[in-house]
Structures are given as structure tokens and as C-alpha cells.
Amino acid sequence: MTDINEITVDSRVYEISFIFDNKLDEEAALEKGNAIKQSIATQGGSFISEEAPYMRELAYEMIRVQNNVNIRFNEGYFGWIKFELPGDKVKEFE
């Protein structure tokens, strides 16, 4: 029997992937990945699985605008995090 005072939280599974600048060193890329994890944890998220950022060649060249100049790159630190988060916290995480 369910207690009438029990609160049900609507949690959902999300996955976020990211590519960090290839000019970073490995330690800085890991710190940025950990900052994302901290943001998720602060919102009440729980972690399912992840892959720490690592340098890899990208499938295609990407362009990033920096100081009104197109910077082309084809490698970067790629990582991802799969996590569970209450649905009402997603907007705050964004």
C-alpha cells in the first residue's frame, strides 16, 4: 500500500554529448566535463554512464565563429554523459 504522503518525482533519462576546443590540454578538458557533471548533480541528477572527454578526429570539419572569424577544426575533445533528472529541472539545467 502506498503512503498518502509519498511524493512521486517524474525523472527522465537524458544524454548530453559535447566537443571541447582542441587547443585545450587534457586536464582542462576533463575539468570542463566535470563542471557539466557538477551542474547535473546540483539539479538533483543521478549518473547512469559516461565517457570522459578524449581527443578524437571528427567525422567532418566544423566551423566555430570567434571574433567574427570562422575557425575550422576537425578534431576536439569529445565526451558524453547519460543521466537521470527530474523533468521539472531540465529548464534550469539548460
Structure description:
The chain has 94 residues and is α+β, with helices and mostly antiparallel strands. 22% of the residues lie in helices and 52% in strands. The protein has helices at 26-42, 90-93; strands at residues 11-20, 46-66, 69-86. A hairpin with a 2-residue loop joins strand 2 and strand 3.
Summarize the structure.
By secondary structure, this protein is of the alpha+beta class. The chain contains 2 helices and 3 strands; from the N terminus they run βαββα.
Number of helices: 2
The biggest sheet amounts to: 3 strands, antiparallel
Range of helix content: 10-25%
Topology pattern, helix = H, strand = E: EHEEH
Mean pLDDT: 88
Distance separating the two termini: 37 Å
SS-based structural class?
alpha+beta
How many strand elements? 3
Spatial order of the strands forming the largest sheet: 1-3-2
Low-confidence stretches: none
Rg measurement, Å: 17 Å
**How much β-strand is present in the residues?**
over 45%
Using the alpha-carbon principal axes, give the shape: elongated
